[in-house]
Amino acid sequence: MYRIIKVLLKIFPRPLLIKMSLIVHKFVAFFMRGNKVSCPICEGNFRKFLPYGYVKKRDNALCPGCLSLERHRLLWLFLKEHTNFFNAEELKVLHIAPEQCFIGRFKKMKNLDYTTGDLESPIVDVKMDVCDIPFEDEAFDVVICNHVLEHVNDDNIAMREFYRVMKNDGMGIFQVPLNIKSETTDEDSTITDRAERERRFGQYDHVRYYGMDYFDRLKSVGFTINNNAKQYLSNMCVNDLERKGIILEDILPIVKK
Ligand SMILES: [Zn+2]
């Protein structure tokens, strides 16, 4: 199964993959039914999560029910348990590059005034560049932009834009691939070779691999780091992590303005 996923990822463009996956995964989910793992997002119970990974394979990663990955399930749990995202009266939300496993669910939530944006995707509300967000200052209570900044040449401009469009006291969720073993970000804008980018930054279209100084970059534009989110997993038991398919080393970059 993993080989098939890996080949598909390399051959087909992402929008087509998304359409194909929506059809195929319903069948896969049916055949994967079981009670070893449980997805907090789609609430499906399966024999296991599917393996996934662009360069390196991770077992127990992709939910056959909603196509969520470990980081999506982690974020969902944190939002449910530690924020007012699901029960605040009204939140204005900007979700950039929205994930398949979230978009339909967030759209249905009555308490969210929900806007999606992306540079290329045909399914979003607003076509937009994160370095030039077409909204006024302090327009949103929540800005979500996961796994985008590692693609952006000048991430400082994007971070300042996120800060600008967020209301005071608003929440930002900015997940990126994070090398927790490195204090500093590995970045070199002269590298444009796809293979070299993949080797150094983890994917052919990434321009850096963030180290733990990612949080300093967020702070430098004015954000405050939510340390509860950063350390969220330290209190979760290993069995629970395995059952929900979550990686213990994962860190949630959630900030406040
Ligand atoms: Zn799921």
Describe this entry's structure for a reader:
By secondary structure, the protein is an alpha/beta fold. The chain folds into 2 domains: 2-68, no CATH class; 71-256, Rossmann fold (3-Layer(aba) Sandwich), CATH 3.40.50. The chain is built from 9 helices and 13 strands. It has helices spanning 2-11, 14-31, 70-82, 100-108, 155-165, 194-201, 214-220, 227-230, 238-244; strands at residues 33-38, 45-46, 50-52, 58-62, 91-96, 112-118, 126-127, 140-145, 166-173, 186-187, 208-209, 224-225, 254-256. The strands form 4 sheets. It has a 7-stranded mixed β-sheet with strand order 7-6-5-8-9-13-12, sandwiched between helices. Strands 1-2 form a two-stranded antiparallel ribbon. Strands 3-4 form a two-stranded antiparallel sheet. It is globular. The termini are far apart. Bound molecules: zinc ion. Zinc ion binds at residues 39, 41-42, 44, 63, 65-66, 68.
